[in-house]
Specification:
Helices cover 25% and strands 28% of the residues. The structure holds one RNA strand of 77 nucleotides.
RNA sequence: CGGAGCAUGGCUCAGUUUGGUAGAGCGCCUGCUUCGGGAGCAGGAGACCGUGGGUUCAAAUCCCGCUGCUCCGACCA
């Protein structure tokens, strides 16, 4: 591949690997610290990184596996622009919907552009022009490319950057069944990708967010420090992200009496109490007796959402239940207009002319407590049906680990942590319809294409691997990801015999196409060994004392295992380890 | 965007309270001695103390503005 090049630098004395002895202040999580310390990446600005030679090699290792598996699955690689005209985004409405996360810029003619955070619009535009017949469907096009998102809070190095490498694929179909087939094909492809990369992962049901569409699944690399919570049922195969985990059973809170006698409504003065906790404490009861009332604004007007006081409302679920796209907490002004009372005293009783959505658990509350829609007042002994009604009742809260699996209704959730590295979506016609991406079927009928979309965070995957595999000395790369598989370390570079053997094995390795590194630096053994371990090279060939007997050491990073072999057998041994 | 904090050689930090000629460790360069898990000695280079203004005889230090970065909450691969 690089035949034209005279030599690639794989001598440590020449390689740019600025390792650091101390943890950089900017890093918080282990993987970020290690990538910085071991000289893989450097920060340029918040969430924007340079990949140094080692880092870039790892990135390419991920990309290559992804590319091979995608090609094998029948997808075709393309390369789309990063700089995108606003018109396309206006066509789907996402120019307005995407919000502040979209990097927007103007050209010299004051025309609007953005830096691509994802490419549904671009690919759909391409396909609607390039493909007109059912004969040319289905297709799956993908690219590996830099994406831009003006994240609210860039974090943890490559985990959440503002500029990051991503593989995104888009498939186009003539039927739902065909999409289903490709979705399964991609599911399998993703499994083999993450298996080849040597990662422990789980697949969970997920919310599809801004990308939209219906069903989607996330691939999570398991790591205790992961940002995501996965709700996994121990009794069946159900697994979901925190965002989308369902609630299997609606029970009354433990503290509620089983008695059903309804007391009469009572208004109480609760001056100075605003939060649920304050109100519950003031009235000497627990938060699960209260009804939390939240006012939201949507594109179809304000709505009132009710959840039990000890539950957290899940906006993604609320969006789904309401069937709205735009959802945000109402301003105090709107709250006052809707409830005629200041923030902190809202309640469903007596509200008119506004849609009310209640969580499944809310109607079960007897003699509950909620705001009186009157400053400094709450009402007690509120019961559903008698005192208020909801227009919609559904699952709109976050699941808790005490909740029951919605699938088998038996297991209580285990909560694991993970890092989202892949996401597959069934988009349906969300984009193709708006953008008139159509084809002619065999009956000369115009039909809208059905789409799927499949992403993998390349840099994030690389960093997730570190998060999953490190020790006190540094990174322990899985073989596939390691920037170099083998490092040759002459213990004392001032002994000519050691250097000779080192050079010999090095050139044998290069001749055999092994990704091999020679630590030819004139440094003490300890420094070289520490550096190579920090970098995480899987196999070390240590040339030292044993050379007197014509032997070298082969030591594994993973478990510290050492094997003494005759120097002329070293290469065979390495090849066996790599096979 | 709300809350907290930080900004001083390449890296990690001290110095700021109580203004008075900019420090340490690591790294880097030179030489000597060392040489199997971050060596020792000697010599040396390297900083307009984030930025703009103000107070003062005098500001890294006090005051005001700005910017950048990190962390905690709502978004995403």
């Amino acid at each position: 591949m690089f035949k034209g090049r005279k030599k690639t630098i794989v001598r440590m004395s020449q390689l740019v690997v600025p390792t650091l002895r101390e943890d950089p202040r900017e890093a918080e999580v282990v993987s970020h610290k290690l990538l910085l310390r071991a000289g893989f990446i450097r920060r340029l600005a918040a969430g924007i990184y340079t990949y140094l030679p080692l880092g870039f090699r790892v990135l390419n290792n991920v990309s290559n596996v992804v590319r091979q598996e995608m090609d094998k699955a029948g997808a075709q690689e393309v390369f789309m622009p990063s700089l995108l005209p606003a018109e396309l985004w206006k066509e789907t409405g996402r120019w307005d919907m995407y919000g502040k996360e979209l990097f927007r810029i103007k050209d010299r003619h004051e025309r609007d552009f953005c830096l691509g955070p994802t490419h549904e619009e671009v690919i759909t535009d391409l396909v609607r022009n390039a493909i007109r017949s059912y004969r040319n469907l289905p297709v799956n096009l993908y690219q590996i490319q830099t994406k831009f998102r003006d994240e609210i809070r860039p974090r943890f190095g490559l985990m959440r950057g503002r500029e990051f490498m991503m593989k995104d694929a888009y498939s186009f179909h003539t039927s739902q069944e065909d999409l289903e087939k490709e979705y399964q094909n991609m599911y399998k492809t993703y499994c083999s990708i993450f298996e080849r990369l040597g990662l422990k992962y789980r697949v969970v049901e997920a919310d599809s967010g801004l990308i939209g569409g219906g069903f989607s699944q996330e691939f999570m690399v398991l790591a205790d420090t992961g940002e995501e919570e996965l709700f996994v049922c121990p009794k069946c195969d159900y697994a979901a992200s925190r965002e989308s985990a369902g609630v299997g059973e609606f029970r009354v809170a433990d503290s509620q009496s089983t008695g059903t006698s309804k007391n009469a409504l009572k208004e109480v003065h609760t001056s100075g109490t605003k939060t649920i906790e304050e109100v519950a404490a003031f009235l000497k009861t627990s938060p699960d007796k209260t009804i939390k009332t939240l006012i939201y604004e949507t594109e179809t007007g304000p709505v009132v959402a009710l959840v039990r006081g000890d539950h957290a409302l899940n906006e993604a679920k609320l969006k789904r239940v309401l069937g709205v796209q735009d959802l945000r907490l109402a301003s105090e002004k709107v709250i006052e207009k809707v409830t005629k009372a200041p923030l902190g005293f809202s309640g469903p009783v007596g509200l008119k002319g506004i849609k009310i959505v209640a969580d499944n658990c809310v109607p079960l509350i007897e003699n509950g407590i909620t705001g009186a829609n009157k400053k400094d007042h709450h009402i007690m002994d509120v019961s559903y049906g008698r005192d208020y009604k909801a227009d919609l009742i559904g699952d709109i809260r976050f699941a808790l680990c005490s909740d029951v699996c919605p699938k088998c209704k038996k297991g209580k959730f285990d909560v694991l942590r993970g890092i989202e590295v892949g996401h597959i979506f069934k988009l349906g016609t969300k984009y193709s319809e708006k953008m008139k991406c159509v084809y002619l079927d065999e009956n000369n009928q115009e039909k809208t294409m059905i789409m799927g979309c499949y992403g993998i965070g390349i840099g994030r995957t690389a960093q997730a691997a570190v998060e999953q595999s490190f020790d006190k000395d540094g990174i322990v790369w899985p073989m596939t990801l390691a920037p170099y598989k083998v490092a040759i370390i002459p213990v004392n570079s001032s002994i000519p015999e050691q250097m000779e053997v080192a050079e010999k094995i090095y050139s044998q390795g290069r001749g055999a196409g092994v990704a091999i590194l020679l630590d030819d630096r004139e440094l003490r053994a300890g420094v070289k060994l520490k550096d190579i371990d920090l970098i995480g090279i899987p196999i070390k060939v240590i040339i030292g004392k044993a050379l007197k007997d014509g032997k070298v050491e082969i030591k594994l990073r993973k478990n510290g295992e050492v094997k003494l072999v005759p120097e002329d057998r070293a290469m065979d041994e390495i090849k066996a380890l790599l096979a």
